[in-house]
Amino acid sequence: MAMVARQDGSWADVIGEGRLPRFVLICMGVWITAADSLVTATIMPSVGADLGGYAYFGWATAGFLLGSVMAGASSGLLALRFGLRRATSAAALLCAAGCVLSAMGPDMASFLFGRVLQGLGGGWVVGFCSVAIGLLFPDRVLPRVYAAITGIWGVASLLGPLVGGIFADLGIWRWAFWFFAIQAVGVAWAAHVMLPKGEHEGDGAARLAWPQLGLIAAGVAAIGLADIAQDFARSLLMTAGGVALLLMMIWTDGRMAVRLLPRGSGSMMSIPGAGFATMFLMTAASMGFAIYGPAILQTLAGLSALTAGYVVAVESVAWTVLGLAVAHLTGAWPVRMIRLGAVVATLGVLLSAVAFPAASVAGVVAAGVLLGGGFGLSWAFMSQRILASLEGEERAIGAAGMTTVRLTGSAVGAAAAGAIANLAGFSQGLSEASARETGLWVFALILPVALAGVWAAFRLTAPRS
């Protein structure tokens, strides 16, 4: 008797009907970005001590994310133009080149340029993976696919700090980037092999949304310049200008023939609009934890790079565990999880503002559990809700749009955290006083953003006629 493909949204259904190679490739693509972020967060105090430039500490993440934003924002259109197979392979090779440059860089400028290239390549890889999920997987398996991606982050949270901590404590942090260069080449090979020639090979006539991409770059760069302004008024002005440019991008996108976001994304009354706003605000509010957590813990609590990395990685572990635990929920539960997740993550930001200045390792662990747990409860269901509201080409644009919004939120959050930290004295070097001030204000001043994310989550889940 012939085997009948399962249609029940189970794990067997995820890899059924020939989807296993694509599923494996998506996991590999997500891995190189997930592990990279955690390794870099762990080794950055060593990089700063070796290359100097504590004022640019946050740009190791913000520069990476700026490249990722530009890549993620164009991934949907590039996938249509060049095809998933060729585009993913080329993006992974660009990521590898960036890793090599950071590994060989003699100064902070070359190191940061390498990080931008890593962001471009890695952002495109993740963006193409998001497009592949939207195009190659049915709605019924999406919560489990996103739960699997969360699982990849969980594995990275266990191995990333270990790898970064070992390299940092041995004084050979450059080898971490050689390690990722090799992996990126592996992803390029896998994309070439696992996406058969002729499938989603692309439409050479597809155009890119250059005006919107330019506004995103300008907006993130303006917020990033607030990082090094060294003056509260100028930092505030640059941040406000950056936010205005990002809002202008949304307004412009809705009126262009070639769009980065689905129709209606500029309205909080629509599912995509409310969903993207929730993702952006929650992500931006969470960035200070991973970027400055290891440095603060090493300075105030006397932890090694390895130990501090693992304490901060509890955020990703909580995201993974709770994401997998709730992936099977249906009916009214997804709405409840979206709302609960936003509230729980906001409590994590609030507790971080208390735990880091007090150098309470237990408090930081609890904050990480709340912060990551909030994302684990809600993220897959937010993604499912957005994609389920879209059809046809809008679905591909929406899938890539989620990556764009998440990465933009990450870049804005990283740049804002950097500006706050430098105003708190972090740019003058690591000391107990600067670490304590940074630990307070990076989280206290971002709390209103998290609260806005809670409001957006309730708008996303509001009943619609």
Describe the structure.
Residues 22-465 form the Major facilitator superfamily (MFS) profile domain. InterPro entries: MFS, MFS_dom, MFS_trans_sf. It is a multi-pass membrane protein. This is MFS family permease. This protein is mainly α and 465 residues long. 77% of the residues lie in helices and 0% in strands. It has 16 helices and no strands. It has helices at residues 11-14, 20-51, 59-82, 84-104, 108-136, 142-169, 174-194, 210-226, 232-253, 271-300, 305-326, 333-355, 361-388, 393-423, 432-444, 447-460. Helix 10 (271-300) runs antiparallel to helix 16 (447-460). The termini are far apart.
Strand content: under 5%
The class by helix and strand makeup works out as: mainly alpha
| Count of alpha and pi helical runs | 16
Could you name the ranges where pLDDT drops below 50 across 5 or more consecutive residues?
A: none
Average pLDDT works out at 83
Shape: globular
Largest sheet: none
Question: Would you report the number of β strands?
Answer: 0
Order of helices and strands: HHHHHHHHHHHHHHHH
Protein name: MFS family permease
Main location: membrane
Membrane topology: Multi-pass membrane protein
Subcellular location: Membrane
Describe the secondary-structure layout.
Elements: H1 11-14, H2 20-51, H3 59-82, H4 84-104, H5 108-136, H6 142-169, H7 174-194, H8 210-226, H9 232-253, H10 271-300, H11 305-326, H12 333-355, H13 361-388, H14 393-423, H15 432-444, H16 447-460
Helix pairs in contact: 2-5, 2-6, 2-7, 2-10, 2-11, 3-4, 3-5, 3-8, 3-14, 4-5, 4-7, 5-14, 6-11, 6-13, 8-9, 8-14, 10-11, 10-12, 10-13, 10-14, 10-15, 10-16, 11-13, 12-13, 12-15, 12-16, 13-14, 14-15
